[in-house]
Specification:
37% helix, four-stranded antiparallel sheet, globular, homodimer, 13 strands, alpha+beta
């Protein structure tokens, strides 16, 4: 049997009391996402199906900041971003600022496969979801007690200037290699508590928080979204590997610990290449992550 | 005196009767944009000021598809995207789906310099423009007779499926090197006639249609926006140059004519490096472009 492999991430950044006290729930969610994707790969399914469904399981899990459990922006609204990329066809789909779509990653995939667009936003994206009968939910579905508390806490302490300077993270994502040797990546986010409405992060920017190419690797990125955009993190890893013909882990280490060693903020990635090798790298206190390689036991980690 | 250099682009793609019959107007607009930026550079101004003002002059020119003269989406509305990147500070700003902002590139610069955000969209971006007293215009300011004709023509012939499969281009942009040796790039667009509302192209995606880094070069891209996003064109040129230590023109040629030789669609770039060398490359019938290097005469071209 050819190698199969899947990795998922549930965000990188600082530790918190909430994370500490919900470790087992987070680990269970990461494990469920890996198992969902792995089952598809083992049955001969595509990497694309595996990453979409792994991300869907994290979007449906209220502990993670994507889909249900998304952060509330400074208007108290949920706006979600997501993207997916097919390493075989070199095609991608992305959505930003979508509301009411239960699984933004599925809408991103619809856009990739059924339109000539790559990147669709706001009301236009929602219209496609309605037109195509993708699952929708009311506003209250997405809002959890934890995110309401975060919103209220931030709202009390943030003035206009603090909102403009707000650091932003909170993401989920998956990368996979299927039996046919194809790669795929997907990333999804619910944004950051009390951030400006309309703020777009790396999760829907192809090359920043998501990239896949069968000639190198598939990458899902997380951390301070703005840093991932400016430094084009996911694509840097893939293009470095392509041009230097080095190992995936070396490419991840180079991009995060050398080329971007001076950035002030958090960057984390999970990645997989066409042989099933995994790349895991982050410069932050923690990165929620899990993976499963062939028949090996699943690995689930939060801290270093 | 150190080298100074500026190049501008006004879109790449197929030829048209409208372009043929308005050649002198287009050339005048490109020349004006170059002169606007060059004057700033010659006076010791920054590359950032030069590209912002060169792009503003194209946004203000109704012949070009950005700012005044933007295309109408399938709702008959103008939604604009723009981005700017500072090669010295490795910082960037981008806006998508903005309405009523006279110069989207100036809003992108405001976001870069005054917020921790990189990428802001829709109503949230418009609110910042209002809050900061950036110049606004009513809807009618942006709409030209030519774009109304294009919209009506496309609306008659496009069904829903044709809209989903629509190819998209029409951009302006500038790159510059200043006396201090700093690079900057900026790109702006009004979208495509009768396209889905919410469609985001490469012009506001850092790494796709805009990238600048003093360690390599500044690039503004144009053509089929989706191809520039998926293939991360602007950043590919810069990172290739950085890793291979090759000339800028070689990097442009490699990315467009080799790495992406099989793409079905139009890609064009203008670029400048820290020595003032220009890179100009496109695979399409035409690319509106102009440049001025030190005291050399200005060059203005539309066809090959």
């Amino acid at each position: 049997m050819n190698n199969i492999s899947i990795a998922v991430q549930g965000g990188a950044g600082e530790d918190s009391e909430f994370i500490k006290s919900h470790q087992s729930g987070y680990k269970k969610g990461l494990e469920d996402a890996v198992n969902t994707g792995y089952k598809i790969l083992k049955g001969g399914g595509s990497a694309l199906d595996a990453v979409e469904n792994a991300v869907r399981s994290l979007e449906d899990n209220p502990l993670f900041n994507s889909g249900r459990g998304s952060a509330l922006n400074n208007k108290g609204e949920v706006e979600m971003d997501a993207s997916i990329m097919d390493g075989k066809k070199n095609n991608a789909g992305a959505v930003s600022m979508v509301r009411n779509v239960k699984n933004p990653v599925t809408l991103a995939r619809f856009i990739m496969e059924n339109t000539s667009h790559v990147f669709l936003s706001g009301a236009g994206a929602l219209e496609i979801a309605k037109e195509e009968d993708l699952a929708l939910e009311g506003d209250s579905y997405f809002i959890t007690e934890h995110q309401v508390e975060e919103f209220i806490k931030d709202r009390k302490q943030d003035d206009y200037n603090a909102i403009l300077k707000k650091r932003i993270h909170g993401t989920v994502g998956a990368v996979a290699l299927d039996k046919a040797g194809n790669l795929a990546a997907a990333t999804s986010t619910g944004g950051t508590p009390n951030c400006l409405d309309g703020r777009i992060g790396d999760s829907c920017v192809i090359g920043a928080g998501c990239y896949a190419n069968n000639s190198s690797c598939a990458v899902s990125g997380t951390g301070d979204g703005e840093l991932l955009i400016i430094n084009v993190i996911a694509y840097s890893i893939a293009f470095y590997m392509e041009l230097k013909n080095c190992s995936l882990q070396d490419a991840c280490d180079y991009v995060i610990h050398q080329r971007n060693m001076d950035v002030e903020g958090d960057i984390g990635v999970i990645a997989v290449d066409t042989r099933g090798n995994l790349g895991v790298c982050f410069n932050s206190e923690r990165m929620h992550r899990a993976w499963k390689n062939n028949e090996e036991k699943i690995t689930v980690k939060i801290y270093k």
